[in-house]
Amino acid sequence: GYLGQPHIMTKFMGINDVKEMPKAKWVGISWQALALGGATLIGILGIYIFPNGIQNSELIAVDLVKNTMLPFFAALVLCAILAATTNVMAAQILVVASSIGEDFYKGLFKKNATHKQTLLASRLSVIFVALIAFVIAYFKISTIYKLVLYAWSGLGASFGPLLLISLYYKKVNKLGAFMGILIGGITSGIWPLINTKLVIDIPPLIPGFIFSSIAIYLFSFVKEKRIKT
To answer: Which parts of the chain fold into alpha helices (H)?
Structure first.
């Protein structure tokens, strides 16, 4: 789902000089290699240090810190984890508020909305999203891993194929792009319902990515053929 993260793609889109793109590419790849490699290493260390498992596998990093470090250094690392979590949470809430206020409320429902009205819609969306998050956390509807996997699958299947295909297939048009995003998102959204009837557990990203890619090629080809005829 990394290719479909809007807040990452916009960083590349907003770069000041195209010549800086290769440098930005290597910085992004290096950071992801460190982050994903570190997460994998934490999992391997957790299996080695806790052979009998732990009560909550999502807290493996916290348990590793508490069991392998002195209290002072453990407190510093745990504070860093809390700070990173809070920072990401705040950033994501701001993205949601901006999207609902500017893109949905002002862009679709009330195009002549004033700044105060848009700001009110953004603030109400923050409260609404916070309440949903509270309900999910309080009633333990799902684990963080499953929620992130589901969300990243939707983003990756919606925007990932379009991003990759646009780089190598110059005949992609607006219809193909729209249908690719739509079909990829819908496939990822309904796939968990279909997956329960299958023998093999297939993540939503895989079928969503495949169907989105097919839709982009198919609808772009149909649109181009109509224009020629």
So the answer is: 6-13, 21-49, 60-68, 71-98, 115-139, 144-168, 174-195, 205-228
Helices (H), 169-204: 174-195
Highest mean pLDDT among 5-14, 26-35, 84-93: 26-35
Write the CA distances from 149 to 50, 85, 167, 174, 176, integer angstroms.
25, 17, 26, 28, 26
Residue 95: what pLDDT? 78
pLDDT of 7 reads 67
What was the pLDDT predicted at 182? Answer: 92
Residues contacting residue 134 through CB under 8 Å, at least 6 positions apart: none
Q: What is the pTM of this model?
A: 0.68
Cα(11)–Cα(153) distance, rounded to whole angstroms?
21
Cβ–Cβ contacts within 10 Å for residue 225, how many?
A: 9
Closest CA to 6 of 96, 86, 101: 96
DSSP state letters, 218-229 = HHHHHHHHHHH-
For residues 36 and 45, what is the distance between their CA atoms, to the nearest angstrom? 14
